[in-house]
Specification:
Rossmann fold; 2 domains; alpha/beta; 375 residues; 30% helix
Length: 375
């Protein structure tokens, strides 16, 4: 007997059970011009199939996207952790504004099935709150930083965001500027730490001026240690084996850590280790364009830091002087980027993360030729 067919799901106030889920999936798959609806239909079909596993695609932020197979029972265990932590109750409204092609959106559906939530489904756009009526109550939502950013700059969406009971923010770390804005909002916002391989988040950090900065707490059944590089190793009781990450952390104890940055992003400049994410956080209040810190090879220092800004025109002298003034006033001189590159179109993953290496390589090849530097 197929145990997965017995699940029910409530979407926008209507409950689908047993065979009705098959009909729902088929109906969603008919959406010719809406990929996100077809992705939801495909996930529902996969969930109620007789297989105990499901295929999940990684985001590709640090490498080529790939499909992995995960157990549905592990997804349920991860969902149970979140539902218990936030005390989610039957019939509460949960917002699905993420694409179910990826784990973040999939897990919202699993949480809704497990906790009997009413899943309010809207297109996974940059401004998903625009699709909701002002009177709509949302008890729980999962969003990414870009969606939060666009919600904060629209006054109507900002007010709606602040009325939501709980919002978890994933995808990547948020900037210090965005965190300050969320603190001003006085809502119940949480940053998550996790990845596809851990089936969404394994640790959480409440955004609050009264809590230690950048300190994450493990969910129940999860503990941490370090590998020889100083990167986080995740042990979760619902995963078959530990997950070794490329995230450099300061391990406080087996349940708490401070995130420092990506091991594969670290810049070694003249013996000084530079964490790009640390510099980006410091600069984020001053730059209103997408940007990131990367590096180029250097004969003397080994590597030098470089600032890349997504800017659709060649900056004039005044703009460059302003940017250089910001770098000099905000960052230590030994960590300050030595060069500033502008490029009109960064390369992004489908989940909105910047592909740093690919963007830099494309910029160099376009402006200097393929043989300019080996990076």
């Amino acid at each position: 007997m197929n145990p997965w067919i017995s699940f029910s799901l409530t979407l926008n106030g209507k409950t689908y059970a047993n065979g009705q889920l098959v009909e729902l999936a088929n109906e969603l798959n008919k959406a010719l011009h809406k990929n996100w609806q077809r992705h939801l239909g495909n996930f529902i079909k996969s969930w109620i199939s007789d297989s105990d596993e499901i295929s999940v695609q990684t985001s590709g932020s640090t490498g080529k996207p790939k499909l992995i197979r995960v157990k549905k029972s592990s997804m349920l265990a991860s969902a149970a952790n979140t539902c218990q932590f936030f005390h989610l109750q039957p019939n509460q409204n949960a917002l699905l504004c993420l694409d179910t092609e990826y784990i973040s959106g999939m897990m919202m559906v699993v949480r809704a099935m497990l906790a009997k939530l009413n899943l309010i489904v809207v297109p996974p756009s940059k401004s998903p709150l625009k699709f909701l009526a002002d009177s709509q109550k949302i008890h729980f939502a999962s969003m990414v930083g870009a969606q939060i950013h666009h919600s904060l700059i629209d006054e109507t969406c900002r007010k709606f965001l602040n009325r939501m009971d709980t919002v978890i923010i994933g995808g990547s770390s948020i900037s210090s500027y965005l965190e300050i804005e969320l603190i001003k909002s006085e809502g119940n916002f949480w940053c998550t730490y996790g990845m596809t391989e851990t089936l969404s988040h394994v640790a959480l950090r409440k955004i609050s001026p009264h809590l230690p900065p950048n300190e994450y707490t493990a969910l129940p059944g999860v503990h941490f240690d370090l590998d020889p590089r100083g990167c986080l190793i995740i042990h979760a009781n619902y995963l078959p084996e530990p997950v070794i990450t490329n995230d450099l952390v300061k391990l406080i104890d087996s349940s708490h850590f401070q995130w420092l940055g990506r091991w594969d992003f670290v810049i070694n400049s003249g013996g000084i280790k530079i964490y790009p994410e640390e510099l980006e956080n410091a600069l984020s209040p001053y730059f209103h364009y997408p940007f990131f810190i990367t590096s180029l090879s250097d004969e003397i220092k080994g590597e030098i830091p470089v600032l890349m800004v997504e800017y659709d025109q060649t900056p004039d002298e005044k703009t460059m002087n302003e940017w250089n003034k910001i770098l000099s006033s905000v960052l230590p001189s030994k960590k300050k980027p030595q060069l500033i590159f502008t490029y009109p179109h960064f390369i992004y993953t489908s989940t909105g993360k910047i592909k740093r290496n690919q963007t830099l390589r494309q910029y160099l090849e376009k402006n200097y030729g393929k043989d300019f530097l080996s990076i």
